Amino acid sequence: MPAEAARHPLMARGYRSIGCAPRTHAIAAGAPPRAGRWAGTGKTEGGIHTRAHTPTPPGSPTP
Questions:
Q1: 40: left (phi > 0), else alpha (psi -120 to 50), else beta?
Q2: Which of 5, 9, 14, 52 would be a feasible disulfide site paired with 26, CB 3.0-4.6 Å?
Q3: CA–CA dist 2, 5 (Å, integer)
């Protein structure tokens, strides 16, 4: 039987998907779980999980 992770205290306060503090908001009951992520920006991810993100190879100058 797999172990379960501890529940984050913000879950009890309406946060269903937790990310960075400035872009994570509590959501209304019945809203999609990720509705509170990047609210008001039209985004669903910060960029590191999208195909548009190309990692910088080690030793390369940062863009």
A1: left
A2: 14
A3: 10
- Are the CB atoms for 14 and 27 separated by under 8 Å? yes
Q: 57 in a domain, yes or no?
A: no
11, 5 contact by CB (below 8 A): no
Measure the CA–CA gap between 27 and 13, rounded to whole angstroms. Answer: 9
Domains contained in the chain, number: 1
Question: Which range of residues forms the domain containing residue 29?
Answer: 7-44
In order along its 63 residues, the chain shows pLDDT tens digits of: 677 888 888 888 888 888 777 778 888 889 888 888 877 777 766 666 555 555 666 666 655
